[in-house]
Design brief:
disordered N terminus; single chain; alpha+beta; 2 domains; disordered C terminus; Thrombin, subunit H; six-stranded antiparallel barrel; seven-stranded antiparallel beta sheet
Length: about 475
């Protein structure tokens, strides 16, 4: 939705002052926002970097020096104030409803969106207290609370980071707190000894040992092998909206000072065995693992916000190919790069016990989410890397094969995303129109991580019919 708002802001410029772009040129006295910035300037020490930056911001607001006019956001112009909070579209149901109506040609809704703009640079709008129309439904309520609904790629209901554009995993790098809001952590029951009142006791807890991806408000998709046969190996929790896993669940934040933004609190969901559906034909066969996919139904619908969003599925292969700029999503992807995301080990010694990485402190292999770009290989190139005894099947994606880079233990079930690609086959880092599609799920790889053997991923496209059938969706969501 961010991209849509960006386009809207550009379109609105035509009806506003040319010097002010999307804002209005009004008398200085009619812009409370400008008055506050002037007042703040008086309290800042001259000569400091903060003073210079604030002074520059104030100067840029002046649109008519002779008449003492300044650029002011429409909702704050003429003495108006934001009777609520300036926030982003994904965090304001009121704005989401207006945006949905605007897409259907509602000009009144368009004007309301224009008048609610707080700051074009931060892409914030004035959101009424309570989200507008107190008690009214949000987009996720009106737009398909049905567990069978799958998001549309045509109306920007999936695959977008609501606030940022993308700028473990063995050999990977840390992501940003809100870079991949579609990615889930899967928790398992774990007992540890702790001294309570001077007495050593067993304490129940959670260990996060697999990943997953949110595909609608009710379902997370993961690998079948993440659901074991015994209670200790069965998924007992899904966590959404986390980035750095900490015992205190502290908020994850970006930036410092006035520019600092934080994710909302994480969302934890209790999961029982009956909520996990493993593909009936999942199993190991002659040096391969087939149909490695499972669906987890949450105990309540997820709440979409800055840290929680829905990824796009390859519901329409032709549309997906167009969105990521390839000829098709099979051979057209060979030698192009996808992105694997997770909290798996950055390094792992199979002889060094179960408490490696950050398990002792945070209950997860790597406490910070990581990402790694890796090339997609053709079946022929994949076999050349693995050896003649191994061949992929149509429902698998082979990716990686670079020394020192790989998805690894703890990343299982996590996402292999793909987005708009440039001419070199690399993911675009600065394009508001890019959507994140879920191309695959981490299935298995070499026991020697980063050895140069590629990883094998469950191809989501092959399982769209199974997903539709499992969640009860009988209509096209593309």
């Amino acid at each position: 939705m961010v991209a849509v708002v960006a386009v809207l802001l550009v379109a609105v410029a035509a009806v506003c002052s040319a010097d002010c772009n999307t804002e209005q040129c009004v008398p200085e006295s009619d812009c409370p926002q400008f008055a506050k910035e002037r007042a703040k300037l008086k309290s800042v020490e001259k000569g400091t970097q903060e003073y210079k930056q604030l002074l520059l911001t104030i100067r840029e607001k002046v649109c008519d020096r002779k008449l003492r006019k300044v650029c002011c956001a429409p909702s704050l112009a003429n003495g108006g104030t934001c009777e609520g909070v300036c926030t982003t579209v994904p965090e304001c149901p009121y704005a989401q409803r207006l945006l949905a109506a605007k897409k259907k040609g509602d000009q009144e809704a368009k004007q309301k969106l224009i008048s609610s703009i707080c700051d074009k640079k931060t892409r914030t709008l004035c959101c009424p207290r309570g989200g507008g129309d107190e008690g009214g439904p949000s987009l996720q309520d009106t737009g398909n609370p049905d567990p069978g609904w799958l998001p549309s790629t045509e109306t920007d209901e999936c695959g977008r980071n609501p606030n940022e554009v993308p700028s473990f995993i063995f050999g990977g790098v840390d992501t940003k707190p809100d870079e991949f809001p579609f990615t889930a952590l899967l928790g398992y029951p774990h007992q540890s000894r702790s001294k309570i009142a001077g007495v050593n006791q067993l304490v129940d807890g959670i260990r996060y040992q697999c990943g997953g991806t949110l595909i609608n408000l009710w379902y997370v998709v993961t690998a079948a092998h993440c659901q074991g046969q015994t209670k200790p190996r069965q998924i007992s929790q899904v966590r959404l909206g986390d980035w750095e896993v900490t015992p205190q669940n502290k908020l994850d934040c970006n930036g410092e000072g006035p520019q600092k933004t934080c994710l909302p609190p994480v969302q934890d969901f209790t999961i029982t065995e009956s909520q996990v559906t493993v593909h009936k034909e999942y199993g190991r066969k002659s040096n391969n693992i087939l149909n490695d996919i499972a669906l987890i139904k949450l105990d309540r619908p997820a709440v979409l916000n800055r840290g929680v969003q829905v990824a796009c599925l390859p519901l329409d292969p032709a549309r997906m190919a167009q969105d990521i700029a390839v000829s098709d999503i099979r051979a057209g992807l060979y030698n192009k790069k996808a992105i694997v995301v997770g909290w798996g080990y950055q390094e792992y010694d199979p002889y060094d016990g179960p408490n490696q990485g950050d398990f002792a402190s945070s209950g997860v292999a790597s406490k910070r989410q990581q990402k790694l770009e890796m090339p997609i290989l053709s079946p022929t190139d994949c076999t050349a890397k693995w050896g003649p005894e191994f061949k992929t099947v149509e429902s698998q994606v082979c990716a990686g094969g670079e020394l020192g880079k790989d998805s690894y233990k703890g990343d299982s079930g996590g996402p292999l995303y793909i987005t708009l690609l440039n001419k070199q086959g690399d993911p675009w880092q600065t394009n508001d129109d890019a959507k994140f599609y879920l191309l695959g799920l981490v299935s298995f790889g070499s026991k020697q991580c980063g050895s140069g053997k590629p990883g094998i991923y469950t191809r989501l496209e092959s399982f769209v019919p199974w997903i539709r059938e499992t969640i009860g969706n009988t209509t096209s969501g593309a």
